[in-house]
Specification:
It is built from one helix and 22 strands. Strands 5, 11, 12, 14, 15, 16, 19 and 20 form an eight-stranded antiparallel beta sheet that branches. It is mainly β. The mean pLDDT is about 95. Helices cover about 0% and strands about 45% of the residues. It is globular and about 55 Å long. The protein has one domain: Beta-galactosidase, Chain A, domain 5 (Distorted Sandwich). Bound molecules: 6-O-phosphono-beta-D-tagatofuranose. The site of 6-O-phosphono-beta-D-tagatofuranose (TA6) has 11 residues, from strand 19 and strand 20.
Length: about 290
């Protein structure tokens, strides 16, 4: 593991082991790259992403906390909360006997007005033949805290229009592209056609992204999460995003695990909440 000066002069950890390679920026404890050995990258990172202190990175795994999307009572607050843009501390770095590198990042004593008082964050990134992520929120304050959280994973795909996502069949969701209408998914796998922005707010299911042209399937398994968000901006919205190349929308799907909307989490003083996600890929041939 090496601490290096990354893009935009931001500090970055680079990990390369017999099992995998990965990179993590301390800003936002943001995993920007992960690939198991002999595999193409599992995470998408935009070629147009900004790497600027205090600005979001487009791709990888942005950490969403303490609110998802727009803050309910303040339209000017940063989208998805400030945790993804704050500098985190590296608390610990270990290698287990199987060769899995575990990095622990800490974000504590944040005094911003919009921060849940006493919320201390601990984020464990396990880099092995799978990518294991766990965000723990401890309430060190005197009163209960309430928040939303998510691991906004950008998964690399070969062609968004050819993939299928399974795991969300028959689930209820809020469709942000149609005025937040509540709908129910059909029995068939999800096919993304154009802009897609769905909050499935009552599901603990494992999802699988089936990618025929990449000849692999990517599994996203989670615990401590009641919601899964599926997002792709499609052509028109992508063109309006300055930190995303015009055709890059084809190259990713966000399948995000978290607790949002009516699933927001309340944590009592002295208690913790843990959200974890494991991402792994396997060769798969559609033929
Ligand atoms: O998770 C889906 C979403 O909330 C979309 O509505 C879209 O805005 C996306 O996240 C990306 O948000 P960002 O603030 O990173 O541009």
């Amino acid at each position: 593991m090496r601490l290096t000066v990354g893009r935009g002069d931001l500090p970055r950890l680079e990990v390369e082991t017999p099992l995998a390679r990965a990179e993590v920026y301390l800003q936002g404890a943001h995993v920007t790259g992960y690939a198991p050995r002999d595999s193409a990258p599992l995470l998408f990172l935009s070629r147009a992403s900004r790497f600027v202190a205090g600005a979001p990175i487009r791709g990888g795994v942005p950490l969403v906390f303490p609110w998802f999307g727009r803050k309910a009572d303040d339209a000017t607050a940063p989208l998805h909360g400030p945790a993804r843009c704050l500098p985190w501390r590296l608390g610990d770095a270990t290698v287990d006997p199987a060769g899995v590198v575990a990095l622990t990042f800490l974000l504590t004593d944040v005094l911003a007005a919009e921060w849940p008082p006493g919320a201390a964050l601990r984020y464990r990134v396990g880099i092995g033949s799978t990518l294991a992520l766990a965000l723990e929120v401890e309430n060190r304050g005197p009163a209960p805290i309430r928040f939303e959280d998510a691991l906004h994973t950008y998964l690399a795909v070969d062609d968004i229009e050819r993939i299928r996502v399974t795991g969300l069949e028959d689930a209820s969701f809020v469709d942000e592209t149609e005025g937040f209408a509540r709908k129910r998914a059909g029995a068939e796998p999800l096919v993304l056609r154009g802009e897609t922005d769905r909050v499935y707010d009552d599901t603990r299911a494992t999802c699988v992204v089936w990618d025929p042209s990449a000849r692999r399937r990517v599994e996203i398994a989670k615990t401590g999460s009641e919601a899964t968000v599926v997002w792709n901006p499609g052509l028109a919205r992508a063109r309006a995003l300055p930190d995303l190349g015009d055709d890059e929308w084809r190259e990713f799907v966000c399948v995000e695990s978290g607790n949002v909307g009516r699933g927001a989490v309340t944590v009592a003083p002295g208690a913790r909440h843990r959200l974890s996600v494991r991402i792994q890929s396997e060769p798969w041939d559609s033929a």
